[in-house]
Here is the input.
Amino acid sequence: MTDRLSPCTIRPMAKDPTRRAEKRPWSDVLARRIRLARGSLTQQALADRLGISKPSLSSWENADTAPTVDNLDQLSRELHVSIDWLMGRGPEDLPAIVAEETPLQRSRVATAAAAVLDALLQIRRAPTPEDLAAMILVTHDWAAGNEKQRGAPPSFEEVLAFVRDSMKMPKNI
Here is the structure.
């Protein structure tokens, strides 16, 4: 018998591993807002609360994949924000309940602002005032969480590395 295919034989198409799924227009907004709302909470801590793996959460924060509706609902409850806000509806500012969880400290705000400004100058990007404020607050909250874990504030270089990582900047800039 021959290995020829009859005209009615249907072969499944092989998936092309180099082809990425087309991004949805809201996925970058969702990714940015998850990172913003997570603040100083580590990916691992949030993933544990959600009952998912850290790589799954990371893929949401990188806009590589999107959470299921159930995960989105649970995520909004854990982060104390609405699904609408996560999906980009409404102002970028964090809801007041989340923003008030970490008290502002003048020296941390100054370090966060300097690191954000340094990173923005290097890539010559001008964010909106709201985005700039959000970047500074997220950086402040990260520094506060880092200081709480280690018992000492992070160095400027560590804060700058966090900002660059958050903005997905190349490390050599």
